[in-house]
Amino acid sequence: MAKPHKLKARLPHGLADRGPAEIAATRTMVETIRTTFERFGFEPVETPAIEYTDALGKFLPDLDRPNEGVFSFKDDDEQWLSLRYDLTAPLARYVAQNYQFLALPYRSYRFGWVFRNEKPGPGRFRQFMQFDADTVGAATMAADAEMCMLASDTIEALGIPRGDYVVKVSNRKVLDGILEAIELGGDANAGRRLTVLRAIDKLDRLGLDGVRDLLGPGRKDESGDVTKGAGLDEKACDTVLGFLRVETHNVPQMLDQMEALVSGSNAGLDGVNELRSIGELVSAAGYDDGRIRIDPSVVRGLEYYTGPVYEVELTFEIKDEKGRPMRFGSVGGGGRYDGLVSRFRGEPVPATGFSIGVSRLQAALTALGKISSKPDAGPVVVTVFDRDRVADYQRMVSQLRGAGIRAELYLGNPKNFGNQLKYADKRGSPCAVIQGGDEKMRGEVQIKDLILGAEIAGLSKERDDYLKKQAEAQFAVAEDKLVDAVRQVLARHGLS
């Protein structure tokens, strides 16, 4: 007879499974971010992971890929739906749909998974988590300055000290002025403008030479893949790269240089003035000590940005698995997107926002030792010594749970008692509860401290503290003292 077909277990390319330690770390991070965002006056809102494709818009960088960077499908009404690629486009739809009910300016935050149909790579997944804050209905640069301050406070609340990060600020209008200077203005040049923006956005990864290649004919990466360039001539490339070489240590001098570069562009001059305003606001709030700085290299890859753009960069170095120095680079960013809500309403609606890449930032915090890579302690395991008394053991579990203690009943084959303790060890249980027939007759239970037991396993049996710890590692208590005894063990290990 033919063998039945066995389905192969496989994970889709560009996705990742997550275990208890990583999930616990994410939960801790998200709570810290939420607390910081709420301190700035933002309130929560949730939008679904699926939106109508036209509502999301076509703003993603990877235009050469199927579905233009999004995962899409048709519903029963033959309308195209897509998984959200960020949290900003769904917010724009939500605000437009509920505009008359919202207190404007509308300040909200949200977090969740987003999905991108793009080429995966090291640390680059097709599903990742973001945490966003947005202010809709405020045209003042104070809203943008506040986003930069929020980014700074959040990074520090997560344990990254000053000097190990920087919030960089630039303005799309300034770059628009540069592009006008090289005759890339107007709708006819929209595609090439976007290619230039995305080339500049790769400056921190590719350097000036790599950006020049992308501004010109194109670039071949280490894998042999070729990225088509913007096709600029040498003079135009020099103009763009000259903008990126602007002095960044002296802010007034830098802004004067920018102003000279865009002197023939009204949009460009507006952008310089907006940067001056943000700089003044940041200085007045005391954030001009290196935490927030103006940097022309920031452009952001999404097309919908219309003014100030900002990016959080981690500046410290760590060693990779081969001992080579590496940086995590950007872990968040955002900017002003005054046209996104307007698409739905047909009237100007100013908006600005900031997004944290939770998944990438979590990897950085783990590398810094700010987040434990170990899972939380497992549940207390109540073992089954006598299979005819499962109801008794289940009653013990209920008592522990009722007292707010994480606990479970061993549900495997109770025949081999040693396997039950091995199971508890694998679960990371702090202790196990044991009651055989003799203990039952005496009205007692045995508490086995598994953490202490692991510690004394490596001690010499001749040491004085061995016998003392051995007595503490397993002891008997009256049945009605079960909860108190377990709490004692948990407190001993800082788990109460």
From TrEMBL:
One of its GO terms (molecular function) is ATP binding. Its EC number is 6.1.1.21. The keyword Nucleotide-binding applies. SUPFAM superfamilies: Class II aaRS ABD-related, Class II aaRS and biotin synthetases. GO terms for cellular component: cytoplasm. The keyword Cell membrane does not apply. L-histidine binds at residues 86-88, 116, 130, 134, 300, 304-305. PROSITE patterns: AA_TRNA_LIGASE_II. It comes from the Bacteria. It is found in: Cytoplasm. InterPro entries: aa-tRNA-synth_II, aa-tRNA-synth_II/BPL/LPL, Anticodon-bd, Anticodon-bd_dom_sf, His-tRNA-ligase, HisRS-like_core, HisRS/HisZ, HisRS_anticodon. Keywords: Aminoacyl-tRNA synthetase, ATP-binding, Cytoplasm, Ligase, Nucleotide-binding, Protein biosynthesis. Belongs to the class-II aminoacyl-tRNA synthetase family. Homodimer. This is Histidine--tRNA ligase. It comes from Pseudolabrys taiwanensis. The lineage of its organism: Bacteria, Pseudomonadati, Pseudomonadota, Alphaproteobacteria, Hyphomicrobiales. The gene is hisS.
